[in-house]
Amino acid sequence: MGLATLAYLKDGDSYLMLHRTKKKHDVNHNKWIGVGGKLEYGESPAECLKREVLEETGQHLSSYQYRGIITFIFADHDPDYLFLYTGTLEETDLRDCNEGVLKWVPQDELFDLELWDGDRLFLDPLIHTEKMIDLKLVYDENSHLVAKESY
Any idea which fold 2-150 has? Predict the structure, then answer.
């Protein structure tokens, strides 16, 4: 079981997306996702969020809002529980990220990116509503979404 944070950061009409291209054996390889990462021992989700955003972007959060939880199951791996956030950065200038390429993507181009199929299910309400999100996504070993459950 893994615990992680996932944040979609906004600037104007754009969202910060991470194109995961640099890590070997990355389940997210070549996908575009928000920023975040695994909780370290003793961290709260909010502490993890702040640390991961700073590590990946070089910037501090100016605001953030907890938006829900995603249960992510990939093939026969243990499930990951992703604490989902939206927020903004203090500054929008970014540094190089060791996990991939960071890019501010206009909101109307988000769904043109190579996303996980399940991400498409929660991004729309995440962007357009204030609803809390509780979603379970199950993928097979070929990264195909085989089950979804919304609560």
Answer: Nucleoside Triphosphate Pyrophosphohydrolase (3.90.79)
